[in-house]
C-alpha cells in the first residue's frame, strides 16, 4: 500500500515541475502599440488631422513635457525596425492600430489615401512573412478633427461614420488580418475625455456627455461587428471584439462590499453588460442608480440614455472574445459628509458618492497613479467569468512604466513575472479561459498626457536621436525567454542569463521575492490537485 507521504511527495513533484508553470500550447504572446503613439508622420503623404494633432499643437500645456506625437517613434518610416523587434521577441501576434485619418483624411469615405493604405499593407505583409499575426485595432483615440467638430462620440451619427470607416478597413485587410479590435478603452475617452476634461477631446461636460459617448461607442462597435460578420467573415473568417479598460475595485471595509460591486458595474459593466450578458442592455443596478440620481438633481429622465429593444438586440453578442486591458486596482469607500469625491476614476465617483484609494503598502512604477497589485488581475478575471460565463479572454494590454534611459529594468521583469503568475493561477485554479497576453508596449512611445516622461517599452527608443534607435531592455530578454519556453520556469530569471544579455544585476532580496512568489504558486496548485483527486 502506498503511504500518504509518498502520494504527497509525488503530487508535489508533479506540481512543481513544468506542467503547471507552462502556458497551454495554444496560448499566444504578443505586444501592443497604437498609431498616434508611435507612428509620427503627422502630416506625411496626405494624412489628415486628428484630435491629438490639433490639441498638442494648440494647447501644449496639456502635455506633461509639452511634447507632440509629430514624430514619436517614427514608426511610419521605421516600421521595418518594429517588425524586426517583434521577430526578435518571438511574438505570436503584434497588436497595432490604424490611424483613421491616414486612410480617410477627412474622416469620411469621399477620399481614400493610397499612401496610408500601402503603409499598413506593407506592415501586415512583413509581419506575416515573419510568422507574426497582425492584430488590428480600428480606433485608439485619434478621432478625425472634422468629426470632433460635429460632436464626436456624442453625435449619434458617429455610429454610421464609424461603420463606414470599418467597412473600408475590412475591405482592405480582412484577407490577411484575422483578429480585430474595434475600439480601445472606451471608458477612458468617454469618462475622461467627455467628463472631467483631463483627457482629449477635453470636453468638460459631466452630466450627459459621458453617457451619450458610452452608448454611441457600444452602437458603433456593434455596427462594425455586424458589418464584419455579414460582409467579410463568410469569405475571410476571423474574429472581432472590443478592448475594455478594467479597474479592479475592492471594498475598503466589510461595509463597502455592495458599493464595490456597484462600482464594478459602473466602471466595467456599462461597457460590457450590453455586449456579453444574456439579457443585454445596461446593468440593472446602474440603470436604477442613474435614474435615482437624475431625479434627485431635478432631471425628468435618466442621464443614462436608454437602449431601445432593437438596439439591445443589435449590441448583444457582438464579440467573439473579451479584450481586456488591465493596469490598476483601487480600494473604494463611501465618502464622508462634505468630502470631495473628485474625478471618476482618478480619485472617486460623484455618482456613487465614493472615494477611490490605492491599496496600502504597494510598490509603484514611474507613474504614481498605478499601484502594482498583481492579485488584482486574477480577481478581475474571476469577476468576468462570474458575470459573463466562459467566454475566451484575451489580455490586450498590461504593462509597467519606468523613467529615463535605464535599460536594466528589473522592476518591469518582476512586474511581468508576478502578473503572468496570476494569469496562470486564473487558468489552472479558477478555470478562466485566457487565450493570450499582450505586453504594453513593444517600444517606448508618446504616452498621451504624460508625453515622453513615461517609458513602457520593452525596447527603449532614443527620442533625441533623429534615427529613433531602438535598444532592448532587460525585460525584452526576459519576455522573449518566457515566450520561447512558453513557461515561467526559472530559466528566464537566472542571474547569469540576464547578466549575459543585458548586464543586469539582481539583488539577493529580489531573488527571494520571486522565489517566495513561486512557492506560493506551487502550494496553491498542490492544494487544488489534492482536492480534485
UniProtKB/TrEMBL annotation:
Keywords, in A-Z order: Glycoprotein, Glycosidase, Hydrolase, Signal
Q: Which residues form the signal peptide?
A: 1-18
User: Pfam families, per this entry?
Assistant: Glyco_hydro_1
The record's section on PROSITE patterns has: GLYCOSYL_HYDROL_F1_1, GLYCOSYL_HYDROL_F1_2
- Superkingdom of the organism of origin: Eukaryota
One GO BP annotation here? carbohydrate metabolic process
Which EC main class describes this enzyme?
hydrolase
| Gene Ontology MF, one | beta-glucosidase activity
Give the EC number(s) listed in the UniProt record: 3.2.1.21
- Record-annotated active site: 397
List the InterPro entries: GH, GH_1_N_CS, Glyco_hydro_1, Glyco_hydro_1_AS
**Subunit details for this protein?**
Homodimer.
Q: Tell me which family the UniProt entry assigns to this protein.
A: Belongs to the glycosyl hydrolase 1 family.
Q: What is this protein called?
A: beta-glucosidase
Please report the organism this UniProt entry assigns to the protein: Euphydryas editha (Edith's checkerspot)
Q: What is the lineage of its organism?
A: Eukaryota, Metazoa, Ecdysozoa, Arthropoda, Hexapoda
Amino acid at each position: 500500500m502506498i503511504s500518504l507521504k509518498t502520494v504527497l511527495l509525488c503530487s508535489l513533484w508533479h506540481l512543481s515541475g513544468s506542467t503547471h508553470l507552462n502556458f497551454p500550447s495554444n496560448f499566444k504572446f504578443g505586444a501592443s502599440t497604437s498609431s498616434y503613439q508611435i507612428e509620427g508622420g503627422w502630416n506625411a503623404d496626405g494624412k489628415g488631422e486628428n484630435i491629438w494633432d490639433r490639441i498638442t499643437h494648440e494647447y501644449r500645456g496639456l502635455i506633461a513635457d509639452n511634447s507632440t506625437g509629430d514624430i514619436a517613434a517614427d514608426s511610419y518610416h521605421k516600421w521595418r525596425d518594429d517588425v524586426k523587434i517583434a521577430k526578435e521577441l518571438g511574438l505570436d501576434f503584434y497588436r497595432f492600430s490604424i490611424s483613421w485619418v491616414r486612410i480617410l483624411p477627412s474622416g469620411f469615405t469621399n477620399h481614400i489615401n493610397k499612401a496610408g493604405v500601402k503603409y499598413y499593407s506593407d506592415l501586415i505583409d512583413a509581419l506575416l512573412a515573419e510568422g507574426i499575426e497582425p492584430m488590428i485595432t480600428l480606433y485608439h483615440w485619434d478621432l478625425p478633427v472634422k468629426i470632433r467638430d460635429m460632436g464626436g462620440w456624442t453625435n449619434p451619427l458617429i455610429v454610421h461614420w464609424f461603420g463606414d470607416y470599418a467597412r473600408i478597413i475590412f475591405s482592405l485587410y480582412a484577407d490577411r488580418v484575422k483578429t480585430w479590435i474595434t475600439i480601445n478603452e472606451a471608458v477612458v475617452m468617454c469618462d475622461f475625455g467627455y467628463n472631467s476634461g483631463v483627457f482629449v477631446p477635453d470636453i468638460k461636460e459631466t452630466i450627459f456627455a459621458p453617457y451619450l459617448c458610452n452608448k454611441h461607442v457600444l452602437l458603433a462597435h456593434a455596427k462594425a461587428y455586424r458589418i464584419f460578420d455579414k460582409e467579410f467573415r463568410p469569405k475571410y473568417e476571423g474574429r472581432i471584439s472590443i478592448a475594455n479598460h478594467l479597474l479592479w475595485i475592492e471594498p475598503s471595509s466589510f461595509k463597502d462590499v455592495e458599493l464595490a460591486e456597484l462600482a464594478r458595474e459602473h466602471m466595467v459593466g456599462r461597457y460590457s453588460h450590453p455586449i456579453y450578458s444574456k439579457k443585454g442592455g445596461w446593468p440593472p443596478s446602474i440603470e436604477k442608480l442613474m435614474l435615482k440620481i437624475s431625479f434627485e438633481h431635478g432631471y425628468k429622465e435618466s442621464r443614462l440614455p436608454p437602449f431601445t429593444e432593437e438596439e439591445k438586440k443589435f449590441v448583444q453578442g457582438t464579440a467573439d472574445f473579451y479584450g481586456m486591458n488591465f493596469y490598476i486596482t483601487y480600494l473604494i469607500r463611501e465618502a464622508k459628509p462634505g468630502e470631495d469625491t473628485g474625478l471618476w476614476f482618478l480619485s472617486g465617483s460623484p455618482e456613487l458618492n465614493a472615494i477611490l484609494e490605492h491599496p496600502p503598502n504597494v510598490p509603484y512604477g514611474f507613474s504614481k497613479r498605478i499601484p502594482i497589485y498583481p492579485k488584482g488581475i486574477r480577481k478581475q478575471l474571476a469577476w468576468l467569468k462570474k458575470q459573463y460565463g466562459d467566454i475566451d479572454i484575451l489580455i490586450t494590454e498590461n504593462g509597467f512604466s519606468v523613467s529615463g534611459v535605464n535599460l536594466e529594468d528589473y522592476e518591469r521583469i518582476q512586474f511581468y513575472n508576478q502578473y503572468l503568475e496570476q494569469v496562470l493561477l486564473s487558468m489552472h485554479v479558477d478555470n478562466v479561459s485566457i487565450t493570450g497576453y499582450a505586453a504594453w508596449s513593444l517600444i517606448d512611445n508618446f504616452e498621451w498626457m504624460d508625453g515622453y516622461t513615461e517609458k513602457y517599452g520593452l525596447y527603449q527608443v532614443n527620442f533625441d536621436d533623429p534615427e529613433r534607435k531602438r535598444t532592448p531592455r532587460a525585460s525584452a530578454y526576459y519576455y522573449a525567454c518566457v515566450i520561447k519556453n512558453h513557461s515561467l520556469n526559472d530559466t528566464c530569471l537566472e542571474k547569469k542569463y540576464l547578466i549575459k544579455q543585458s548586464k543586469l544585476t539582481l539583488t539577493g532580496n529580489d531573488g527571494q521575492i520571486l522565489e517566495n512568489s513561486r512557492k506560493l504558486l506551487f502550494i496553491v496548485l498542490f492544494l487544488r490537485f489534492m482536492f480534485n483527486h
